[in-house]
Structures are given as C-alpha cells and as structure tokens.
Amino acid sequence: MDSLQLHPLLLLHPRASSPSIRQLRFPSPLILNFRNVNLRSFSAHAGDAASHDGPFAFEEKIISHPKDDRALVLARETDDFGYLVGFRLIPESGLEEFMSVPHAIASSGEVEKPGIAVTDEAEAKTRVSHNICFVTAEAAPYSKTGGLADVCGSLPIALAARGHRVMVVTPRYIHGTAEDDKFAGAVDLDRCTKVMCFGGAQEVGFFHEFREGVDWVFVDHPSFHRPGNPYGDKFGTFGDNQFRFTLLSHAACEAPLVLSLGGFTYGEKCLFLANDWHASLVPVLLAAKYRPHGVYKDARSILVIHNIAHQGVEPAITYANLGLPPEWYGALGWVFPTWARTHALDTGEAVNFLKGAIVTADRIVTGYSWEITTSEGGYGLHELLNSRKSILNGNAFEENANVTFDLSLNLCNLPLLYSVQVVVGQWITNGIDVTEWDPACDKHIAFNYSVDDLSGKPKCKIALQNELGLPVRPDCPLIGFIGRLDYQKGIDLIRLAMPELMEADVQFVMLGSGNPIYEDWMRATESAYRDKFRGWVGFNVPISHKITAGCDILLMPSAFEPCGLNQLYAMRYGTIPVVHETGGLRDTVHNFNPFTEESKDESTGWTFSPLTKESMLVALRYAIQTYNEHKPSWEGLMIRGMTKDYTWVNAATQYEQIIEWAFIDPPYC
Ligand SMILES: Nc1ncnc2c1ncn2[C@@H]1O[C@H](COP(=O)(O)OP(=O)(O)O[C@H]2O[C@H](CO)[C@@H](O)[C@H](O)[C@H]2O)[C@@H](O)[C@H]1O
C-alpha cells in the first residue's frame, strides 16, 4: 500500500481530540504532500515509525488512488496579534505564490529563513527562535543538590546552540565556602529592582555571566547568603524558603523586562520555563500580576516537574505575603484531607505553589506524566494533573494509546474527511553534559579511558578501592549507589537486601545524603561489613565521578524516577546499571537476556520489576554471574552503553516542539 508522506512540519496538537477544525492548530504551513492519494478520503495512522520530529510519530496508511499526484498545503491563518483564526488549503499550483507572502510566519519570534521547499523530501527550513527564560533554584555548576541542577545547567546551553536566546535566572548563593568561587565570573549588573511581597518592597540585585551562549542571571539577596545548601543546613530545611523562592519568582519575572543583556532586554515575548515548586509562582504572576496590566500578553509559561514530592506547601495565611491579588487565592489554595490534619482545629487550608503552576501554566512537562496522573504517583495532585492532561507533554496518555480524531476540510467546495490516528506515548528523556561526564577526559577520575581503550577502567576501580580503604580486589564485582537518601531512591529496598547481598562475594559503595535515619544506617552497615561495604555520607561531586568510573555495577532501585541521570552517567562510563523498571529508567536501560538476538544488539543493563527485594536480588545475581563468568557479554554491555547518544540534542528538539505548541494557543489564563 502506498503511503501518505506527511511533511515533518505536520505537528498534531495534543488538544485535538474532537472533530472541530478550530482545535487543530499547526505552527507553520502544514504540507500534506502525497502521491497516489484519493483526495476525497484518506486516513493517516500515527504509529511508532522511526521518523519523528516531536512527541508524535507517524506511520501513514492511506487509500490510494493511482492517478492523483498532488500536494496540498494547510496553512495557518492568524490575526494581527498572531492568534490562529483558521486554516487555508492551497493546491500545489498556488503554492509558490503563497510562500512568497510573509504571513507564513510561525507563532512567535522571528523567522530566520523563510521559504519551504515543497518536495517529497521537503525539509523544514523555517527556524523560529524564542526568548527563553529558565527559572530554577539550582543550576550546575553554580549550585547543585540533584538532577534539577544538571538539567538547568545543560538544557539551556543546548537550546542556545539551536539559535534561541536563553537566560537562566537562579539565586546567587553565598555559603562562605570555596564553592562561592563558582560565581566569580558573574558581574554585578548594578540594576537593583524592588519587588512587592512580604509586606513591603524587597530589593534584589542581579549578577550576570555570559557563558556558552547563555545569559546566566543570578538573583542577589541577603537571604541567599548563608551556610548550607540551597534549601537548608545541618539544622534542617530553612524556615524562610517560601520567602526566598517567592523573591526568585518575582525577580525572574522582572529580569526580561529590566535587564539589558548584550545591549537588549529580552522583552515581553518570552517563554518562561519554571522548574519545580521553587519557580512555580512564575506562571501565576504572569496571569495575576502582569497580564491584567497589559504586560506579558505574548509570554507563555511551561512548568517542568522534576520532583512532585516537593510542592512548596505553607499555611494559607501566608498567601497575603506573596504579592498576588486576593482574588487569585483559588489558584494556590489547597485543602489537606482530614486524615492529614494535625489537630482538631486544623482546617487543613494551605497554599501550594506547585498546584498554582499546574493550574496556570500553558504547558506541563515531566518525564513521568503517566505516573503522576495516578493516585499513587500524584502526591495529591493527580486529579488536577488529569484535568490538564491535554497539555501534559510526555507520557500523558496511556502508553501506546491511540487517539483518533476527524478533520473536516473543504477544498474547492468538496468536503473531505481526514481521519487521523496518533499514538501518544513518548516522553522527554534528558540528555547529559557530555563534556562534564566523559571518561576520556574526566579530571575527577584517576585514569581516563574510552570505548577504544578500556584499560583505564579497572585502574579506576583499584584507585577507588584504595581511596575508600576497601580490600583491593580487581576481580570482585563492585556495586555502587549514588543519590539522595530518601524513599524515592529505593533505600528501603537496599537496606532490606543488604544482609543477603553481603553474603555474596561482592563489594558495595554508597554515596548519599538526606534522611538522617538512612545516613546512620549507612554508618552502621559500614561498621558491620568493614571489608565489603563503604558508605560516604555527604554530597561530593568528585566522589560521584570516581564511583561512576570505578564500579562495575550501578544499582538504582528507585520507587519512581521521572528520568534519572545516574544510569546515563553509568552507561557512558561502562558501568552496568541494574534498575527498577520505572519511568525514565525503564526507558533508558534495556534489559540483557543472553538468549535473544535483539538483546545482544540493544541491551545495556538489567531491569527488574516488581519493586521487591527478591526481584532486585535476582537481577543483581544475573549481573554478578555475567560479570564473573561471561566476560565477552559483559564487555558487549559496556560498549553498547558507552556508545549510545546522550547529548541534549534530542531533548532540546522536543522542548522546542512543546514551546511551539505553547505559542500556538493563547495564554491559558
Ligand atoms: N551525594 C551525592 N554526591 C554527589 N552527587 C550526587 C549525590 N547525590 C546525587 N548526586 C548527583 O545528583 C544528580 C541526581 O540526579 P537524578 O536525576 O538521579 O535525581 P534527582 O532525584 O535529584 O532528580 C530529579 O530530577 C531529574 C532531572 O529532571 C530527574 O532525572 C530525576 O528523575 C528526578 O528525580 C546526579 O548528577 C547525581 O550524580
């Protein structure tokens, strides 16, 4: 059967689930370019074809008509403000004329290269650049406590490299340690700005560094200058975090308007990427504080959820401090269920920052969007998230679900019916910073190595055993764990399994900080198994590189994992991941089964499910046995992992797609 060739620019809007043409929007001229098609009726089936420029992939199926050989263009019609008002179908003959008219402009930003080649292999020549403003509590290398920092340190650079103007707004933390030198390259912009919140005008300053094509903007305020990490110190979480991150959000909204970076402000036509609860006031501020006064009417916002367990919940009375109009209370208002209330007079009323962003952002991005729409994974927000499913990009619909809709068009007064089926089920997999995490030139590890010369890897293992005071045993499988010590990372499972695991001839090293109960358990386990176990309590980036390079196996029994970065680092370093089959871990680690051909080509580690001690130990036993007895298979796993593409290019392209979609719709509120 002949196939309908859909132009790469065919981007199906996730809201498009009804037959109404008004709900189908395309960011630029949609070219239906096909041969041998019955123009009166065809259906396109979207499947898991290899060619995809965004979260949708198309595998086409049509009713053929041997005599037709034509192209149609479906063009957006926009009003003076750039809003979509309709579509136009243009037969191939009229195409040249149409393309010479400047209304083929995408939703936002400037068109760098107008003109689209209309051939069967037509490629998108139109590049739309956006002004993008990341708002985040951490960004590597300036500040880091977890994966949020890695993403906000790398993704902006990848987007800037694709032609966008990108700024990252994050606090200028001064802890009074050598770490503060990381901000040494940032200069004071001498542009103090007053933001109204917490009972008065709060003055914030801005520091700036232009690095790798990105404007790194650091919000300066005395509340960011104190010992500890971004969120707390040895006494626990800071009590004024709501104040500190309210300041960050207000300052971030001001930055594109007031900061002249490289001679120009970013201006109002901005795309805000608000990360986690710390930046969640941004979409609310756009809607409640700025738009009613005609500012940021052309801006859009995307909420990126890295960790739904933290939502920025504080007593309802604090709403008055946030610098928001009283009538917007409902956006943040939150009522705890009765069982979660602490005493008889507790009404359960609170404000929830993350909820505020969920109900106001134009798009929501997260790696584990299916999980968070369930009561188990939604941490109380699942119903709200379900209500915004249509803009939840990623695995929003049941995996491999088919979404079918009809598109009625009218060409030369002939009614056409297009039935289009889309498979939705792809999420954004993070990339990694391949220069920071490269075994060939990593400065933190004792010996460098690469896929062409693996000789440095066993030397790194010996160096690690030496450094940690473990018996130096090059042939003993060394298992590693790196991560926050909390429920998400599956520490309970490791604790349960440790006695049995320690009976095997293995060594185990853990690096992590977090829950003091787990920290104490690590110390106690080290005392109990002096010759087999080491637990490094703390946050230490050089040690994390050494463990990644020196171990043979990296264990990640995460209960849930939106994406996960450590398994990607491990694979790049020839360290084999053993992971719970969840979220991004399931997506990035391919299970090894020596009895299937496919596995020999694809596999990069072991995955286990369900999340039980028994299934984790089974997977670990397979890994240990393969390490001990099947060296060629082990080397195959290492090489496959080391040669995979971990760059940010793919993720950046998907983010671009979502940004495009965000600009197609009017602001959500
Ligand atoms: N004690 C320690 N010392 C040194 N380095 C340490 C460390 N503990 C952790 N790290 C580092 O912190 C990062 C952790 O990243 P992850 O993505 O694995 O988890 P996290 O839960 O923080 O991120 C959340 O956000 C990211 C980004 O979206 C998602 O990938 C993830 O699934 C989600 O839970 C890694 O770079 C790791 O090496």
Automatic annotation (TrEMBL):
Residues 131-386 form the Starch synthase catalytic domain. CDD domains: GT5_Glycogen_synthase_DULL1-like. Its EC number is 2.4.1.21. GO terms for molecular function: alpha-1,4-glucan glucosyltransferase (ADP-glucose donor) activity; alpha-1,4-glucan glucosyltransferase (UDP-glucose donor) activity. Pathway: Glycan biosynthesis; starch biosynthesis. GO terms for cellular component: amyloplast; chloroplast. GO terms for biological process: amylopectin biosynthetic process; starch biosynthetic process. HAMAP family: Glycogen_synth. PANTHER family: ALPHA AMYLASE DOMAIN-CONTAINING PROTEIN, GRANULE-BOUND STARCH SYNTHASE 1, CHLOROPLASTIC/AMYLOPLASTIC. This is starch synthase. It comes from Sphenostylis stenocarpa.
